[in-house]
Amino acid sequence: MRIVDIREKSIDISRYSDPAIPSGGLTTSIVSVTTDVVRNGVPVIGYGFSSMGRFAQGGLIRERFGPRLLAAGDVTPLEAWTAMMKGEKAGGHGERCVAVGTLDMALWDAAAKAADLPLHGYLVQEFGGGNALATIPAYASGGYLYPDNDLSRLTDELKAFADAGYCRAKIKIGATTLERDLARTDAASAIFGPGCLAVDAMNAYDAEQGLAAAKALKSRRLMWFEDVCDPHDFEAQSRIAGAYDAPIAAGEALFSAAEAKLLDRHGGLRRDRDILLFDPVHCYGLPGYVEILIALEGRGWPRSAFWPHGGHLFSLHVASALGLGGVEVNPSSFPPFGGLVDQARPDNGRISPPDLAGIGFEGKPDLAALFSAL
Amino acid sequence: MRIVDIREKSIDISRYSDPAIPSGGLTTSIVSVTTDVVRNGVPVIGYGFSSMGRFAQGGLIRERFGPRLLAAGDVTPLEAWTAMMKGEKAGGHGERCVAVGTLDMALWDAAAKAADLPLHGYLVQEFGGGNALATIPAYASGGYLYPDNDLSRLTDELKAFADAGYCRAKIKIGATTLERDLARTDAASAIFGPGCLAVDAMNAYDAEQGLAAAKALKSRRLMWFEDVCDPHDFEAQSRIAGAYDAPIAAGEALFSAAEAKLLDRHGGLRRDRDILLFDPVHCYGLPGYVEILIALEGRGWPRSAFWPHGGHLFSLHVASALGLGGVEVNPSSFPPFGGLVDQARPDNGRISPPDLAGIGFEGKPDLAALFSAL
């Protein structure tokens, strides 16, 4: 397929279902890539967005990667990716990795639509289906600190997750005192029991704070303890892992295979239990994510350790096609980007990607309307 | 000072004095920041650019960091930096670090002009002058592979460096066969003798290629062997350092204190001889650079190991004020950004920053014209 038009827009996103609650000025880019492929009389258009958490990338998309894609000629998604990365220098794995990943998502959406396949089916064709899973373990992600009535609103949010059929959940810690965070963790544990609740410190702790949190959390039988310190502070992470036998999770804020190998070599992680959160959008898109997967599999990591960050439909297709350990879902955060397609519910804690052509954004009317407006 | 207007433009730059020679589509951003400070009846305006080698950053400057700076109120350069970094997440040290560094350069230019001091004098006031050096060792940097007549054009380029008063130089390797690179190195060594020529492999080698190059280069008594592999491949770098007793240089493509500490801990570098190339623009500007300097000094590195990348006047002021080991100069590459102010020449291989107010871009008429046109 040939990319003949690219449009992008920056969109404000919120950690809360109520976007009036201040949320750090987060943004994401939405993009459309129009192809020269015609289906049912109209051009196939792929949609993508910048996942959550690393800001919109309009400038890099318009100025650097979009023009390369428009000049790439007739390409598969993998060839398009190579064209976008041409001339990029070693190191510096921030921002551009998100810009490339945003366009990459739209390319896969377009290619799968052109093949009239749901993305997970298209990926099985492309990468082989030996590991594919029809259903994937999922957890409901949210639990950000509320500016007021935090404990009762947190409890309401988690009850809603349980009512929606989720049997695992993750909340955020690190934005208030450890004492309050332990109260939050215990309130959430009353709804999601042993082994079913994860806590995410969002890289907020230094070594001493992380050690204090680990000490307090280790009796609480968590699903995992996530982003325990700065993502490049492998010294602190190793010390914290050394004081915390239960699973820890890392990798959400590392965006390259080069950094993933360093994490494996120096980060103190345990291949028999720890969790890898790399985001298939933020890591230069699917080709970059697969490079990380192959590198770490080669070093002894099981695929079941990979629970991709993002909480959106793209990660779900990727996890299904590649047979990963599980996925995040944002049932209430980051509307309209989070959550499943309408009417979809977990079954025994597992979910399936939609069977619409492409990623299936069209099954989420609010999100589809955002994309169509491009 | 308060920033009342910011302008930016993306500029094509070339590795060659002849910009007609293809040069990888390199770009840099130029910016102006207009302050509310009036001197001689006109507002003080600071100028900055994105150093060389990591592409222009117009989108991030316009969309993310410029607006924060305009909203920052009455600030010093350090306070302005904190305002620009507000809400930025851990990890992801690429692109944004260049955008912030570009604006940071202009802020220091403006602040020094407002104080009617050359930047090195202003920095001595800000950071203390205990380490300041009036003159700094310098080397002439260039020697990129020419598409034709490479050896004779390389020789001409290096003779011009010697004629301009430089007694140290650096050339690029890694873009052709090792055999041709050894011939290039030997041709350059005939002009810049033992200990006076560095070679820069531009992160092009994997471990085996780097080891082969190290083995061939070690008899050649180089000033240093630079960027010997991927900047995050500390395993390869350690192996290469283990096979190469003479100095190696690293850090040009690492942009944060977090990564600098990893380089120190895992990169196999030797504090008694190796060279640290961090770029004071690309590392989130001067505040980020100083954070790296303090972190590595605390781990036993001497200031003399720091030879900042960039080859421009900003690095020269920083090196002088902080008392670093030396600086790169680009006498012919990246016109009009490289090189000294007109009429300035090395004296015994050492140079001084200009004594004009601010960075002194006004002493380079071609460059000053670019900035004024903003």
Structure description:
- 2 copies of one chain form a homodimer.
- With 374 residues, chain A is an alpha/beta fold.
- Chain A folds into 2 domains: 3-116, 2-Layer Sandwich (Enolase-like, domain 1), CATH 3.30.390; 126-372, Enolase-like C-terminal domain (TIM Barrel), CATH 3.20.20.
- In chain A, 37% of the residues lie in helices and 16% in strands.
- The first copy, chain A, is built from 12 helices and 11 strands.
- The first copy, chain A, has helices at 58-70, 77-85, 96-114, 119-127, 150-163, 178-189, 207-217, 234-242, 257-266, 285-298, 313-322, 365-372, and strands at 3-12, 27-39, 42-49, 136-141, 169-172, 197-200, 224-226, 248-250, 275-276, 327-329, 350-351.
- In chain A, the strands form 2 sheets. In chain A, strands 4, 5, 6, 7, 8, 9, 10 and 11 form an 8-stranded mixed β-sheet that branches.
- The longest helix of chain A is centred in the first third of the chain and has 19 residues, at 96-114.
- The model of chain A has no long low-confidence stretch (mean pLDDT 97).
- Chain A binds chain B through residues 10, 24-25, 53-64, 87, 89-98, 203, 230-235, 253-256, 258-259, 261-262, 265-266, and chain B through 10, 24-25, 53-64, 87, 89-98, 203, 230-235, 253-256, 258-259, 261-262, 265-266.
